[in-house]
Amino acid sequence: MELKTSVGSEAKQNASEYAIEMLNITKRFPGIVANDNITLRLKKGEIHALLGENGAGKSTLMSVLFGLYQPEEGVIKKDGKEVKINDPNDANALGIGMVHQHFKLVEIFSVLDNIILGVEPNTAGFLKKQEAREKVVALSERYGLRIDPDAKIADITVGMQQRTEILKMLYRDNEILIFDEPTAVLTPQEIDELMQIMRNLAAEGKSILFISHKLNEILAVADRCTVLRKGKYIGTVDIKGTTKEELSRMMVGRDVEFVVPKKESTPGEVLFKAENLSVASKAHKGLAVKNVSFEVRAGEIVCIAGIDGNGQTELVYGITGLEPLESGKLFMAGRDKNGKDIPLSEITHLPIRKRSKLGMSHIPEDRHKHGLVLDYSLEYNFILQTYFEPRFTSGAGFLKTKAIREYADGLIEQFDVRSGQGAITTTRSMSGGNQQKAIIAREVDKRPKLLVAVQPARGLDVGAIEGVHRRLIEQRDAGNAVLLISLELDEVMNLSDRILVMYEGEIVGQPDPKTTTVQELGLYMAGAKREKNGEAN
User: Using one digit for the tens of pLDDT, what is the confidence trace for 40-58?
Assistant: First the structure.
């Protein structure tokens, strides 16, 4: 493959052209070389994308630049001069800031307190908070980063939290801005806003390093893109001269199907039914879900689409048992401990474990809060919901470590979960995408009658997304029911057999995925279009 720009040709250019040069960086962890002799050069005033599969070494490389890790080999130059970055304080002193994939914010502090934390303006030890507020408000207006300085982090949206992280960098007058998977938890509207913010920052002379799995975003906003694969440098290309297909081949090493083929759905019996569900909101005193009814049949994928914050989260909490219902009933067909089918029966008040044993699996929206115990090993996370079964626990109550290890090794291989030390890897140390793949492996392997999948491809690269979509279609084709909750319009259109659109806690439309358009779907999601009968049956 012909690369538009190579390390060799870049090296001949004037070093002063570059804000940052990371030359021949190698970083090792137990059992893995995360960065293997990688060179990356960031030009002044450019948006430079860093692309790679889950676990390719992108976040590690940026953590080296930010001083969180020390490389075993290689040097870092800023403005052509070699620098030593021992910790994030050194990075900030050099004008380097970073928005991490999982935000570094104090939830009980206000937005303003988080932004100024560590660099509070003071005179003789007295905090000058009004001065800080004025600077923060001025920065937010200048860059279009709307925030409420007095709101607590725990009470604001994920998109607002990200704006807080960006303002933290700008408050410190950082010139080199690192965005690690900045769109992984944002709605489509928030992503568009972030793209424009990044363009504005680059136009002001800021230099941006942008880690992403999303090829459309890279093509839309980046000037150049460096690709990593399994810890190695593959190449750097100019965005104007490349395509989505070329980038995906560089990243994965093969051609990727962006739309997974699926045969016509043949729905069978009703496996799940929600009847007049109402769920309370945590953000206000009213209802987040208002009198919602729908059903999911065997052999179909039903997708609940909508802009984030319209009741989807609370609906899933009610269905899976994470939150109680205000009113309404839930019904599910499942299987008993002997694998015998159980007809549709009420599960409204069943605890989470009994729903799981009946045949409900849940890929959660927040993998850290509801999906994993981060300080457990990967193998223990795989058995969180099944450890009590005879295959994993002896009659005396002792875990069967050999059986657990063999089970974990099988899932790791089958689902391509990449970790430095295999089954014994501490889950916290894995990349976000591989944490997500571990959850999907666990939930799909339970062979559920009902799979509730919330943003299942969040944080995954194109190759892994293709794999996840195949798994969902396999579940459908095996005669199980799949309830998909997604903010990604492409995912909604490609996977759904039926679409239900939620707006302000209600089902407002059921557009046919075969005939609807993205534009029509957007109208339903924005509340501009509504079917006369707002209830889905």
Answer: 999 999 999 999 887 788 8
Closest residue by Cα to residue 471 from 492, 501, 431, 442: 442
Which residue type occupies 376? Y
Which whole number is the average pLDDT over 118-135? 83
pLDDT in tens, 397-411: 899 999 999 999 999
Concatenating the DSSP letter of every residue in 267-324 gives --SEEEEEEEEEEE-SSSSSEEEEEEEEEEETTEEEEEE--TTSSHHHHHHHHHTSS-
CATH of range 1-95+175-256; options 3.30.530.20, 3.30.1130.10, 2.40.128.190, 3.40.50.300: 3.40.50.300
The DSSP result for 170-236, as a single string, is HHTT-SEEEEESTTTT--HHHHHHHHHHHHHHHHTT-EEEEE-S-HHHHHHH-SEEEEEETTEEEEE
Topology agreement, domain 1-95+175-256 and domain 260-359+448-537 = yes
CATH 3.30.360.10 fits 260-359+448-537, yes or no: no
For residue 374, give Cα distances in angstroms to 369, 431, 438, 454.
9, 12, 12, 19
Tokens linked to 79: 């403005």
pLDDT per residue as tens digits for the range 6-26:
444 444 444 468 999 999 999
H or E element, residue 75: strand 73-78
- Write down the pLDDT at residue 533: 52
CB 288 within 8 A of CB 281: yes
Sorted by where each begins, the domain ranges of the chain are: 1-95+175-256, 107-172, 260-359+448-537, 373-445
- The confidence score (pLDDT) of residue 261 equals 84
Give the residue from 246, 328, 249, 250 showing the smallest Cα distance to 290: 328
- The partner residues of 25 in beta bridges, in order of sequence, read 38
Distance CA 391, CA 407 (A): 10
- The distance between the two most distant Cα atoms of the chain, rounded to a whole number of Å, is 74
Residues facing residue 482 across a β-bridge: 301, 451
3-class DSSP assignment, residue 441: helix
